[in-house]
Amino acid sequence: MIPKFILLAMKGKPLPIHGDGSNVRSYLYCEDVAEAFEVILHKGEVGHVYNIGTKKERRVVDVAKEICQLFSLNPDTQIKFVENRPFNDQRYFLDDQKLKNLGWSERTSWEEGLRKTMDWYVKNPEWWGDVSGALLPHPKMLMVPGIERKFDGTDTGASAFSLSASDSRESHMVVPPPKNNPSTQKPSLKFLIYGKTGWIGGLLGKICEKQGIPYEYGRGRLQERSQLLADIQSVKPTHVFNAAGVTGRPNVDWCESHKPETIRTNVVGTLTLADVCRDHNLLMINYATGCIFEYDAAHPSRSGIGFKEEDTPNFTGSFYSKTKAMVEELLKEYDNVCTLRVRMPISSDLSNPRNFITKISRYDKVVDIPNSMTILDELLPISVEMAKRNLRGLWNFTNPGVVSHNEILEMYKKYIDPSFKWTNFTLEEQAKVIVAPRSNNEMDASKLKKEFPELLPIKESLIKYVFEPNKKAFSG
Ligand SMILES: NC(=O)c1ccc[n+]([C@@H]2O[C@H](COP(=O)([O-])OP(=O)(O)OC[C@H]3O[C@@H](n4cnc5c(N)ncnc54)[C@H](OP(=O)(O)O)[C@@H]3O)[C@@H](O)[C@H]2O)c1
After folding, report:
1. What is the DSSP string of 109-121?
2. Which of 178, 216, 298, 365 has its CA 20 to 30 A from that of 92?
3. What is the mean pLDDT of the chain?
4. Residue 265 Cα: closest atom of ligand 1
5. CA 359, 361, 366, 367: dihedral to nearest 10 degrees?
6. Residue of minimum CA distance from atom 19 in ligand 1
7. How far is the CA of 297 from the centre of ligand 1 (A)?
8. The RmlD-like substrate binding domain covers which part of the protein (predicted)?
9. Residue among 255, 174, 471 nearest 350 (CA)
């Protein structure tokens, strides 16, 4: 009521009082309330309830009169009595003795508190943005921070209080969230994402935008602890996503000739970020890799027996995979980390050179081996959901089942380019044109499927999220 009356008085507008204004309220200056919180924090007993109040009460009409006086307005003409609201409490009274026993007392007099409040509003007239809907006699809007609700001013015509022409034009206004005041608008989620310039990091930002989740990209390099701390202090995230890592250009063979650089980011950097997050009680969603396994006698190709989360990595053929397996092992000791084993990621953007489909459709020759893969369009939103559910530990982050290179290229031919042709070669022939061996495997996605029963098998996901949408685009 006090902010509303001050804002109206500043504009010289009438102060509407519901009913006759005889109902009483007790008022405390905000700094005294803040001090009460502090006293309770330090001296209060856990599990106890404390009333924060004052025994001094004032009638609503008297408050309105005093505000008029502060603005040199005539209360007799300025105050308008409007229809009372259906449930307008006559009085609330809190006994604050228990709080006083802790040593707290009210320090600001009513007069001083009111004057300071008025001074603040006079100095910060634009602080709340456009709240004209809230200043109407009977506002109907919901003031939910961060959520826009339309104001429906239909009852204003029936009110005894007449609106100016400019007011009536605002009968469908939107209340903006408070400006520059994070303490009054604490969002329930705020993501800090590493990997702004990367493929997965870039897609994560788009998902956050689509879902309306506040996020910021980390500026720090992963291996620089002080930079990560600065990011956390400035962003104040609820969750951290690590989509940063050295993946090698043009491919992972780069890591064979850049081992210290690979270690710096993928090992030192990833562990540093996990450690900093742990210090700050933050969950870190870590996009790791499933390229740390290869088919073996217990998990033969096309057997349907996939590697499980608890299986020990058996593929160290490339330096990239070797370091990723080492980090995965160490991250198991961090209970604030959710490690997602991504494999051969695919997205609906077929122009992206990082996309597995784009890669194999451009190669001169391709091997034909079934593999588990990750359809990013389906799975990245699931990783956001995993953050919301605060899931931790190791997860095979692939669609269930396997798909081979040839099966994908058949789909490519069917949906994208009927004239497409390709040539296969063997693993031995492939070995001659790459530096480090590549991992081929099936991952067991049953843990993920149990948590997200809607998760599609790889071939269905490919058609739904990649080929069907692109087919429309190509034929259109
Ligand atoms: N794409 C795949 O085939 C695949 C498969 C399985 C798993 N993964 C894993 O998923 C993660 C993301 O992959 P991606 O394909 O999105 O990678 P990407 O496109 O190569 O992007 C890597 C990102 O990491 C950042 N980065 C590299 N070193 C950094 C450091 N020291 N500090 C901070 N940022 C650093 C890069 O930023 P700058 O440009 O500023 O260096 C870039 O934004 C990686 O860990 C990767 O190993 C990828």
Report:
1. -HHHHHHHHHHHH
2. 178
3. 88
4. 31
5. 80
6. 198
7. 32
8. 190-358
9. 471
Burial class from Cβ neighbours inside 10 Å (0-12, 13-18, 19+) for residue 400 reads buried
Report pLDDT digits (tens) over 125-151.
877 777 777 888 887 543 333 333 333
Residue 410 tokens read as: 């058949």
Q: Which position has the higher pLDDT, 430 or 275?
A: 275
Which ranges constitute the DSSP H helices of 149-224? 165-168, 199-211
CA nearest neighbour of 464 among 407, 397, 409, 411 = 411
Question: Which range in 95-104, 109-118, 304-313 is most confidently predicted, on average pLDDT?
Answer: 304-313
Nearest Cα to 316, choosing from 306, 328, 334, 330? Answer: 328
- Other beta carbons within 10 Å of 246: 20
Q: Which residue has the tokens 């006699």?
A: 137
Q: What angle do CA 263, 266, 272 make, to 5 degrees?
A: 100
Asked if residues 79 and 17 have their Cβ atoms less than 8 Å apart, the reply is yes
Cα distances (angstroms) measured from residue 119 to each of 6, 195, 463 = 10, 46, 63
Q: What's residue 148's pLDDT?
A: 35
- Residue 361, SS3? helix
Long-range Cβ contacts of 97-106 (<8 Å, 24+ apart):
98/48, 98/50, 98/51, 99/36, 99/39, 99/40, 99/50, 99/51, 99/52, 102/39, 102/40, 102/43, 102/44, 102/50, 103/39, 103/43, 104/35, 104/36, 104/39, 104/40, 106/28, 106/29, 106/32, 106/54
- CA distance linking residue 322 with residue 345, whole number of Å: 19
Distance CA 217, CA 201 (A): 9
Query: What are the beta bridge partners of residue 79?
Result: 15
- Judged by average pLDDT, the poorest of 112-116, 155-159, 203-207, 363-367 is 155-159
User: Which pLDDT score is estimated for 179?
Assistant: 44
Return the best residue to mutate from 193, 200, 443 for the ligand 1 pocket (most ligand atoms within 8 A of CB): 200
Question: In order of start, what are the domains of the chain with their CATH numbers?
Answer: 2-125 (3.40.50.720), 139-181 (no CATH), 187-475 (3.40.50.720)
Strand pairing class (79-82; 24-26)? unpaired
Measure the N-to-C terminal CA separation of the chain; round to a whole number of Å: 58
